[in-house]
Design a protein that fits this description.
Layout (H helix, E strand, L loop, with lengths): L33 E6 L5 E6 L3 E6 L5 E7 L4 E6 L5 E6 L3 E6 L8 E5 L4 E6 L5 E6 L3 E6 L6 E6 L9 E2 L3 E6 L4 E7 L1 H4 L21 E8 L4 E9 L4 E6 L5 E5 L6 E5 L8 E6 L25 H37 L4
Antiparallel strand pairs: 1-2, 2-3, 3-4, 5-6, 6-7, 7-8, 9-10, 10-11, 11-12, 13-14, 14-15, 16-17, 18-19, 19-20, 20-21
Length: about 350
Amino acid sequence: DESLFVYDCSSAEKQPLGEKGQDGKGTDKGSDDILAFAFSPSGDYFALTDNNKRLILFRTKPSWECVSVRFVNRRCTSLVVTAAEDKIFVADKSGDVYSYSITEPQADGKLELGHVSLLLDVALSPDDRYILTADRDEKIRVSLTKAPYSIVSYLLVVIHLCPLPCVQDSTLRLWEYKSGEEVHCCQLSAICGSQATKPEQVCPCVPVLLLIPTVYIFQLDATAQQLVYKQQIPLKHKGWDIAFEETGDLWILQEDKEAPLLLYRACDGQPLGELTAVFLLCPTAGFVGAESYYSHLYKASFDNMDEYLQRKEERLQQQKKKKQDLQHGSSGQAKKKMKTEEPSL
């Protein structure tokens, strides 16, 4: 069926203002902007979450239909569907991950795990055995999906969760996530030049793709466990997102009203250098030049040692004064006792 399915989020069910959610806190007014979405591995299901704290589940086969509209506790940053297609894992701004059933589409969410920092992304291993969560404090945690309290490993110094995480020191690192071992590190500065090391581009929350108008392609050598640089595709505008098809075709979404979506295809075994098609997506036009959603995601660094030492000195002085007062009180009571025991004349 080649008919177009349209779903208007503004007409979907909304939670009344002031009504308490699962966490016991009242709801606030939001917009209908979509914050995150994902297909199931087979493509049979599609889920999205929006700024109104709604999780909307669709079935795509035999035809598209809305299955359920549920409400989440916090605005979400990322979501993923299990390979078994029985659950949706949703990461939110408070650092929690909730699971929502697909087989029971009206059931409430279940808290699975939590971080002490805002979550940027969540992913699952192909067999659903491991769940990976990336937070704003530059780390990825690897846990058992069925027992998320059991932490398998940490991938430290990472700024964004993707198959090949990029870090703040202009490097591209390859990890064996089950052991937490780093197996390869590639210096991007040697490939990208100065544009990989500009101070304004050092942000621990924004994928490198969103900062520079170039797509860098690496090939994974599984035998040598190395990343091999292959080529780069220059863009006329900043890149927003990229995705490979199973056939190897590369889709690029860029910040451009005229040609936001590009498709590159390798021809006759050559690199991905030929632009095959350009697609115009009208809904993207309103976002070109708009304020970045990442502007508030920054990592503040500060030195609180002086403040700590000052508080420590104040505590020591208070303890010293308290001790002196106790000693003075004991001494006064002893003198008073001696006077009462003196014989009267």
